[in-house]
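Curious: why these numbers?
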Amino acid sequence: MKVIIYWAKNIVETLLRLLPFPVRTGLIRVGNPGKNSPVIVTGNFDLTVERVKKSLKGLNVYLLIANSRGINVWCASAGGLFTEHDIISIVKTSGIEDLVDHRRLILPQLSATGISREIVKEKTGWSPLFGPVYAEDLKEYIENNFHKSEEMRTVRFDLLERFEMAAAWAFPVSLIPALPIFIFWRELLIPFCLLIWGFSLAIFLSFPLYSRFIDPVRERKGFILFDFGRGGYRLLFWALALLALSIYGIYAGTFSWGFLLKWGLICLFVVLILSLDLTGSTPVFKSGLHPDRLLKVVLAEDLCKGISLCREVCPRNCYEIDKEKHKARMPRIDLCVQCGACIVQCPRDALCFAAPDGSTIPPETIRKYKLNLLGTRKLPAGDKK
């Protein structure tokens, strides 16, 4: 029964993963933890909590569920909904300080964009570490004495993730108009759902085939395959679909205003699928609709001491550390998704964002001002973006 419930929750919350699914915060014992057992922190998005617990099966650990407002760790951290204050709160209220002899917290790597490691250490006396990107690597990470491989630090967008994201887009887009279509044009319900799901699956499952042609940084005046989310291209695409429907209807002798209305509605929702923010729906690109995509991470080499936190938290493996010179390098800066984690975590303030106009956003601003739902960062008066 537990297995059935687990998979049922996974399916429902995957289909509706764009919505928050909060669970109770607090302390969970996994296995039979003792005084030296690891302490792992995650957000209170139910799907994440269940997957973390599943990944920890067979280990003896303490799992702290902090308040991320029922949202996944990366989105909550980037939006200022999962911060160092939530970590401090769960440490102080959970009773974990009396259960272990050490003072080491393992935080999700993808929370690094919103959680100041230094503030957590100052306020609690605990030393935060940023664990692997994926819960499935936690066991190996712990057994490897809390060391991460390059693969553990890097986000992927593998087949299963692409399938889940396709379902997360297709389900709400097909569900919302399903009732009126069922009432007025029942015979179109199945073709409509098949079109929506077919296009969503095609867009995401074929992503590796066209991803190299996507340029989310450059201000585009044209469009990229399967990314019509900007400008008036969605309306143009819909107009072309209506024209094609009219020509087909006239040629087949089935044209009527009712025919055009029904199939025009179907095409409208297909266009909505094509209008989704594709790049923002992946972990390997910055949203094409977010102003942050135009920013560039800049390294002040004179301030850098090669401490390596930038390398530890970068989800795209942009950094390398020159151990002889004690300096960080960014040989793969073209992969950067402008998450700002490296800037937030650098204790030397050697990193900042630079805008195309030459202005910069300093580390203290990135730490304080997070992104809203539209991907815009509220900046103090006088700061430019």
In short: Residues 138 and 371 are 28 Å apart (CA to CA). The first helix runs from residue 2 to 15.
